[in-house]
Amino acid sequence: MIKLDYSLQTPEERNELVKEILKENPHPNNQYLEILADYLIFAMEKEEKRNKKILTENRMTTVNKRETSFEGLVAQLENGEDGIYNLITNNKQIIFQPKVTITKKDLEEIPPLKDLRQAINIWEARLKVAEGKNKFIIKKALIEMRKD
Question: What is the model's pLDDT at position 66?
Answer without folding.
Answer: 63
